[in-house]
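Suppose you are handed only these lines of text.
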Amino acid sequence: MQQVKAIQINENKKLCFRCGNNQETLFFKSPCSHCGSEECWYCRNCIIMGKMTACANLFFLPSVMSTSHQRDTYLAWKGELSPGQRVASDKVHQAVKDRENLLLWAVAGSGKTEMMFEGMNEVLVNGGRLCVASPRVDVCLELFPRLQEVFPDVDMVCLYGDSTDVYNGERFVVATTHQLVRFYEAFDVVFIDEVDAFPYAKDPFLEYAVKKAQLRTGCSIFITATPDRKWQKECGNGKRNFVKVPARYHRKSLPVPQKIWVGNWKKELQKQKIPSKIHQWMRQKLSEDCPVLLFFPEIKVMLEVASILEHLNFEPLLTVHSADPERKEKVQQMRDGTIRLLLTTTILERGVTFTNVQVGVFGSEGRIFTESALVQISGRAGRKFDYPSGDVLFFHNGVSKNMALAISQIKMMNQLGKRQGLLDEN
Ligand SMILES: [Zn+2]
Ligand SMILES: [Zn+2]
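From them, the structure of the protein bound to zinc ion can be written out as follows.
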């Protein structure tokens, strides 16, 4: 075991080795039961993972190259990559070989998991170690059994906030990004899914955690459908190694959002009304037997609209938001088709697939609807092979910059897909 001081104090500067915090205001003193001191420093930044005091040491399993039972391949997957996936997969494979960071910019519904298999296999056949990290527990739980099937002979562990699994030096770790702070020089390659997703996009410690978790000679593969502006710019001016996957696996273009002006909807809500364009569209789609997913800028607005819709006989409908304890069940009801109308906050902007869903955004000019949120929301439509298209309507009272950016990003991907021959005509 390697041993490192948990909080490094040099003169008056402090660094929490676990999370990388070096802000003076985030260190506090308290009486300590470990060392008996009345004033032992601890880090508030990572306290949700357990109190880390200055008298504690962190222990790390040194990374050991596995030399036993080396094999030509560990990959048991027999599926086939689409041409777009093939390009990305080769690029990931090369980046892993060269130990180079790479951004995999793949549109929603392109099948990004499969694009990582060969790169992962490359790490494993060379006796290396890897981690797949996602900010969301649901994603980890979904990925883990899938990856176990794909690499059946590799020891794997899934780590998240309240998981009962313990890290035992497995070569293949699936973990929430939070858990990365537990590792030190442990992985040859870290694959980070949804690198832009809340709450890590604005977390300066993610970068620290990733760097600390990987070997000095290691690299990271960043995966997202919606890199932020800064990363997009770096791709544009050659400062970031990247590969774009502009097309979905079903070879149909991404639905381009339409902007529908609905006037001052706040005023209408005060009169217990919603813009007629919105409920007419919903009425029509539901009568065509399509499920409808309507996004809202805030919970309060969503609940107001829900009660108005109930008066208009739009039943049954459900609402869902991040603090909703029945979130999972409601999403499942929508999947099963027992309800056809689901109102939601941005909580469902990513990670969900509903067959033939039609998507609306109520008050899309709202500031919560960032460029990436709107691109992700649009990516909910047309995901299925049998239903590759669908409405995406931005109901607004004035076009925001984010709306314009999101639409141009989607159009850019469609053009690129066409140019690369990854889309069927029409
Ligand atoms: Zn102490
Ligand atoms: Zn800390």
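What can we learn from it? The mean pLDDT is 91. Residues 16, 18-19, 21, 43, 45-46, 52 surround zinc ion (ligand 2) (CB under 6 Å).
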